[in-house]
Amino acid sequence: MTATENPPAQQTAQTYRPSTLQRFLPFIIAAVVPFILGSTTGDLNFWWKAVITVVVLVVVARLAWKWTPRGELTHREDMRLWRTPSDRSWAALTMFGLLVLPFILASDFTPPMGFPWATWFAVVNLVLIFAMGAAAFNLLVGYSGQISLAHVAFLALGSIVGGVVGVQWSGGNMWYALPAAALAGAVVGAISGLPALRLKHLYLLLATFGFHFVMMLVWREYLQEYFGFVGIRFKGENSPRIASWLHWLPGIDPDQNGEFVITGQFRWYWVLMPITVLSILFMVNVVRTREGRAFAAVRDRDVSASLLGINVARSKLFAFALSSAIVSMSGVLASFYIGSRGEDSFNVQTVLNYAIIIVVGGFSSIQGAIFGSAFFWFLPEWFKWAREELWFVRDIDFLSDYPSEIDLAIKGFLVVIILMFKPDGLAGMWRDFKNWLGRTLARSNP
Amino acid sequence: MSDAILTFDDVTVQFGGVRACDSISGRVDRGSLFALIGPNGAGKTTLVNAISGVYKPLPGAQVQFHPEGGPPEDLLAYRPFQIARLGVARTFQNLGLFMGENVLTNLLLGRYIHEHTRLIEGGLFTRRAVKRELAARQAIERVVELLDLGAFRRDSVGDLPYGVQKRIEFGRVLAMEPELLMLDEPMAGMSVDEKQDMIRYIYSAQDELGMTVFLIEHDMGVVMSIADHVMVLDFGQKIAEGTPAEMQQDERVIAAYLGTEMAEN
């Protein structure tokens, strides 16, 4: 069935090649249908749309599964990111889900039992920002094996660059701040990686943690110098706008006062989602090509890596630079999305939060960062909902008296559970689930 | 057979008070199969480590590599990754594989010095990056076929049996297409059948791919049957050097090597 299991008997069973149209059709459907559903207002009610969504979901998954090259694969086919039927199915589903999600969350539908639909949109956007940063952090810590605690320093660097380039120089132009932050992040990241050439493990962790405090000092000085203790305002007159060359696109409409300000969850989603998806795809591509393989080699055995011709020092610095560049970009996005950054926006707790995200999500897997940040943001929301709505939880005063402490305790408990029983985290569980599903499907229709 | 590919002179490696290698000199002829033998702790691996740049020998040592059609290079002036790029590849006695990665990734890492995809190109997956990736895969396909690794392509290396792992590591250095191939006990811990296979692979690396092989081996029988030239170490000293037939007659070799083995039995 899937090439990951690679049974020789089935590999040569039948050769099948879909046409180019067949290869892309499921993805085209997945891309187009959400927008059609989203733009038809009034005449179709929510439940009809829900039925259509589910039908399209099944059709897209089935077609992507069916129209997958089978048999002896060429190198080009073998190299594709989505190679097996199950990969292609999930990719099409994910694409459809990401595109249809904002329309669902923006609809005026109210789920039963006061499930907080509207607040979840904000959570989804935060998940996107955190997934990007955590994936980059995981690329460094999990995939390249350079234990670092400096990522929050780079979120702060992103805010500084956002403040300098995005607010002070251009009055709210996030589009200049993003590449500037990537550049600054890469340069400063490479410098912060210098201790990695001499130190390893716990010692490197301490050195990078030191870098965190240096950056916090810079951040505080910068705030005091230009903004005072209130912090930087990234909203209001400083909020980002949609570039003028995109105004012709359907669905991009001016506000009442004729401006194209990126505000509200729906608009932000369309900014954050593509950037996050593209940056994660970038990292996935790095990991599966030459330099990314070198990262893994340096992580596992640096002596062996150097004898393969890999310049270990250069490779480590590249890992730091790449990771920091993307974390800085996510710092810019977070600043503009959240709207203000003050002195206490970055603290040791944030450092730990990212660590929780990648440990729960799954070490050394970029996918894990996505699961981890979803876990991190959804769980408290779900607890909050449970405390307010579920009858058997609502009556326990203790839970509503100490909400944040209990959230933290449950989170900590789950981290311990995951570390003990499932060291590869949610990403590992997801892999197991996919394998189980593949086996079940293969058994039911051979 | 006359010109040398590697000459080393007065190589001494010292760990504290122990001289693991004591002023060892020698030369490896281009295209030959050079074998380095000796009992446990004789300093064989240390010598290879000194040549490949992992250990620094004491001052006064000379290690020169003569690449095909180029000026001789002083290997002691280079760092290990630069030595690998010059065309000297080696394997490890206790495996230098990346156990968490799959066979394909491990073999593709052998192509690292021949691919030239930059980080950003790889991330954007540009046409050029794809082309280079394809070229690398085609190059390792030859190795996969030669070593019969096709069935394991996507398996994690750590899950495979030891004999296969040894073959993968050998495949990875073949993929580097070095001029000088240094194999550190490639047959250690293998069954007789696997040893036979490995001997065949080493032969084809030497004959068909035109590599010079520098072989460290523990098993005297294997060495005597395949080597062109043998050097024997004992306690960090070179005790004899010559053809396999000469070595079998040499008193010191028998005393140091075969003698101890007999005594053990």
Description:
The complex is a heterodimer of chains A (about 450) and B (about 260). With about 450 residues, chain A is mostly helical. Chain A has two domains: about 10-110; about 125-430, Orthogonal Bundle (ABC transporter involved in vitamin B12 uptake, BtuC), CATH 1.10.3470. Helix content of chain A is about 70%, strand content about 0%. Chain A has helices spanning about 10, 20-40, 45-65, 75-80, 85-105, 115-145, 150-170, 175-190, 200-225, 265-285, 290-300, 300-305, 310-340, 350-360, 365-390, 390-395, 395-400, 405-420, 425-445; strands spanning about 230-235, 340. Chain A has a two-stranded antiparallel sheet with strand order 1-2. In chain A, helix 14 (about 350-360) packs parallel to helix 19. Mean pLDDT of chain A is about 85; it is low at about 1-10. Chain B has about 260 residues and is of the alpha/beta class. Chain B has one domain (about 5-265): Rossmann fold. Chain B has ten helices and ten strands. In chain B, the strands form two sheets. In chain B, strands 6-7-8-3-9-10 form a six-stranded mixed β-sheet, with helices on both faces. Chain B has a four-stranded antiparallel β-sheet with strand order 2-1-4-5, covered by helices on one side. In chain B, helix 7 (about 190-205) links the parallel strand 7 and strand 8 (about 210-215). The model of chain B has no long low-confidence stretch (mean pLDDT about 85). The chains are: A mainly alpha (about 450), B alpha/beta (about 260). At the A-B interface, helix 4, helix 10, helix 11, helix 12 and helix 13 of A face helix 2, helix 3, helix 4 and helix 5 of B.
Which structural traits does this protein have?
heterodimer; A: 446 residues; mainly alpha; ABC transporter involved in vitamin B12 uptake, BtuC; 19 helices; disordered N terminus; B: alpha/beta; six-stranded mixed β-sheet; four-stranded antiparallel β-sheet
